[in-house]
Amino acid sequence: MDLNELRMNIDAIDEQLVNLIEDRMSVAEKIAECKIESGKSVFDKEREAQKLDKVMELAGKAENREPVGELFEKIMEVSRKRQYERLSEKNATDEAAIFDPAAGDFLNSEGIATDNELILYKNATTRQGILRDTLIILSDKNSSARTFSEDEEVRKIHECMNMLIDESARRGFFGNLWHTFLTLLLVSDENAYSLATEIRGEMGGSLRDLALHDLVRFKKWFDIDFTEMMDRLRVPEFAALLDFQRGKAESTYNTRVRDRICELADTLSGCDTAEAMLDELADFYGAYGVGKFGLHKAFRIRHVEDRTVIEPIRNIRHVQLKDLVGYEIAKQKLIENTDSFVAGKKANNCLLYGDAGTGKSSCIKAIANEYYEKGLRIIEVYKHQFKDLNDVIAQIKGRNYKFIIYMDDLSFEDFETDYKYLKAVIEGGLEKKPENVLIYATSNRRHLIRESFKDKPSVMDDDLHRNDTVQEKLSLSNRFGVTIYFGSPDRKEFNEIVRVLADREGINMSEEELYAEAQKWEMSHGGLSGRTAQQFIDHLSGLQ
To answer: Nearest-CA neighbor of 520 among 540, 501, 536?
Structure first.
């Protein structure tokens, strides 16, 4: 038998397969009609698994079983898609479709949104969406019976409890964890309504109507009574999640964020209508904002699949400017520039430079803490991330906050050229820098770029335009309109810093002994600086 004859045989077999697949699709459509009438779900996970095992056993040769299984798995998926098409034509719903990979188009179609489908508040993570929808199904006896077997119900409720505790406990939530979880979804979702309300306050109009559509569903979910579900699935332990008590040893990333969400959850659960819930939510957006920028004060950037992502720093040191002893002139200069910025007035990029350990970085942390309530946010960017600055600015320029892009320990060697890119971003590119963005940097160098004696004029110098070279090195630091110097303290100032810090920590030691010990410490630990003083006090505190 030659090749052409073999190919003709394959064509004949393929023709039979096509006819059989068409017959199978016709039967699948009839099955869909039966399921619509009986209210059964398209996706039956246990039957699908049994069917695959059965067809694989039909294969005469062992090496064909796996290929047969892969083929029929795809055929069965296509059959389910056809059934979902029939459900869509009949405007029928299928709550179990969220667990079927074949139901993507069905779930996204306009006329077939399940009761859990939302219009604006659709930005929950996949994990959060599964948790929400699974608990909603389990809470209803009929929906749960149509969707899960009895064994699956028990397994699913424990999986949901695990996810709900994980989502809540790592944020420090307490009280009704179901309500705080739903509230987290509402305050984290950056959509057309929440962003507009954050900027301009309650708007009314079509956006509010669409938001109200979603809040009607959230109201229904807030009002779920899980008592019947706990009895039916024999999970009385679920009640602990509805009145969750924090232990003394538990710690949270951000107590301020935790308290605001828990308080809003209590308020929303007490609302009689969806309209009242939306009013409370709009007030929250107006007061605190929405999403990560509304809930957090400091951020860093990183790459995720070639995208620049701004992610919150959940635990920032809670330092205040008053905690920094001395440097009153420097602090006042920083306060004046920042006050102007958050008030919407003209302000300058700011460079804090000077000796190591003098509190430059601590001042930036203090600014983040003290100006959060006034809408200021800090984004920390490292030198190797300068190429991402345009992406960062594009993400923040339209938000209703003031942003400081913070660069710590900024300096460049002669061979580094990244500073040229930074120059254009700060000032000099064609695109105007947004009014809500400033750049604050700290450095041990006044001019940021390393300088040497060869930068000075010399008869033997081979650089014909030495002044141009010098100006190029100064051009970056000149783009910071405000420069603030932090110098090392003298002995008297150092002793004063030590004394104040010792008083705060309750160190019981005479001043004479304290100063003598401080002098010994600084001579072997970095010299006179605020950092050295703090390290000395930490050492004494540890000995008490």
So the answer is: 536
| Per-residue model confidence (pLDDT) at position 256 | 78
pTM of the full predicted structure?
0.67
Q: Where are the domains of the chain?
A: 3-107, 119-295, 302-486, 491-543
479-538 pLDDT per residue, tens: 788 889 888 888 888 888 888 888 888 888 888 888 888 888 888 887 888 888 888 888
To the question of domain 302-486 being in CATH 3.30.160.100, the answer is no
Q: What is the mean pLDDT of each run of 10 residues along the chain (544 residues)?
A: 82 89 88 82 78 86 86 87 80 67 56 58 82 88 82 89 85 90 92 86 83 92 93 92 76 72 94 94 88 88 84 82 86 93 91 86 90 90 84 86 88 62 64 83 70 51 49 65 87 86 84 85 83 85 78
Report how far residue 392's alpha carbon sits from residue 405's, in angstroms, rounded to the nearest whole number: 9
SS (H, E, C) 454-466: HHCCCCCCCCCCH
Q: What does the block give as tokens for 254?
A: 């951000």
CA–CA dist 222, 226 (Å, integer): 11
DSSP string, 439-484: EEEEES-SSSB---GGGS--TT---TTHHHHHHHHHTTGGG-SEEE
Contact by Cβ (8 Å): 408, 445: no
* CA-closest candidate to residue 177, choices 158, 162, 188: 162
Q: Which two tokens stand for residue 159?
A: 């999986």
pLDDT, one tens digit per residue, over 452-482 is 545 555 544 555 444 545 455 566 667 788 8
Question: What phi and psi values does residue 463 have, to the nearest 5 degrees?
Answer: -90, 110
**The residue type at 472:** E
Q: Which helix (H) or strand (E) holds 304?
A: strand 298-304
Pairing verdict, β 307-312 and 298-304: antiparallel
Please, are residues 143 and 133 in contact by the beta-carbon 8 Å criterion? no
Q: Which CATH superfamily is domain 3-107 in?
A: Chorismate mutase (1.20.59.10)
Q: Give the three-class secondary structure for 197.
A: helix
Measured between alpha carbons, how far is 423 from 514 in angstroms, rounded to an integer?
A: 47
Of 131, 163, 140, 156, nearest to 45 by C-alpha is: 156
In the DSSP assignment, the letter for residue 528 is S
Rg, the chain, Cα only: 32
